[in-house]
Please model this.
Amino acid sequence: MSLLSRARALEQDTVRILCDLIRTPSHSSKEKDVIEVIRREMTGIGFDEIRIDELGSIIGRIGHGPRTIAFDAHVDTVYAGDISQWAFDPFTPKVEEGKVWGRGSVDQKGGMAAMLTAARLIRELHLENELTVLFTGTVMEEDCDGLCWLHLIREEGLKPGLVVITEPTNMNIYRGHRGRMEIHVSAKGVSCHGSAPERGVNAIYKASRIALEIERLNENLRTDAFLGKGTITVTEVVTSSPSLCAVADGARLHLDRRLTAGETRESAIAEVRAAAARAGVPDADVTPLTYRETAYTGKVYPMEKYYPTWTLPVDSTYLHQATEAYRATFGKAPHVDKWTFSSNGIAIAGIHGIPCLGLGPGNEIYAHAPNEATPIEHLSGAAAFYAALAETFARGMHQ
Model:
């Protein structure tokens, strides 16, 4: 029986797992209950080791071979948003029209369910003497992508030869994405009574001029043939003043900066400072943000909100192996592309240089959207591909 046929035979169980994950809300820093669901499933499958790190991510291991491959799914989700936009309760999963519906079905619990079915298939392949296969259910990615893997790499010592990210790719193979930054630009003013604004300096006007320069900057950022164009936009304005009858003494812009190839933390900050100077506010404070939220375990693990760009080279051996596994699974060549959004790859590959690639069930256009749903055939297809890639990865050690 082929891996795809075997995965399809297990489809009902994969759907059950995904439904259990969906009905267990797990917003960032509140993932404890869903981690327990995953632990239960790993125990039933017969993982060789199951542990939870200090940040709260779960790591399951199969095998003890000399080469290590890891499969990653973040298990936190965004909130449901405006419930009136949903046709059903987002945390009461339903199976209709060949899909599993519910919050997280695409981003990114479908990947976790497919990984667990892949674990069954990999055990049946008896690769335990050739491979160490890790399955990570990671936390807090929606709040701070890559934080969980910084902790796994730096504190837990995980350094796989390859990491497969199971974020949604519509069943294509992805080999990278743009990076990003979160930046604050603050301008100071001098308050005075609103009846005589000429006595003060209005920080809102300063920030407004900076915002217009940011808009112009966005049009002139560099472009990469594969990753596309860098972008920058203002996503929030916060002001301060003694009262609504007073000139604002402070104003702050929150910037979302997407980084293409060749753009760095330093170049992005320099561009914003130059934009502020062009706006006539050379003393504006330009500060990258730092994430310091508390995990459900109580641990705080700060990370600057700079998420580097990464790509897996088109001639990479790992990409060739993934293409071979894809052909073996589906009988056709894969479409190789990139994510629009960011992922844990920013820490794995972008910061630490560990090779990454991705394939996941569901289409990323439905991530964070109401009425989220993943095709069931994607779940079984992804599970079969993960097992095929592990087998190909193991065979590569003998070539």
Remarks:
- The longest strand covers residues 179-188.
- The first helix runs from residue 3 to 9.
- The chain has two domains: 3-177+309-396, 179-291.
- Residues 265 and 368 are 27 Å apart (CA to CA).
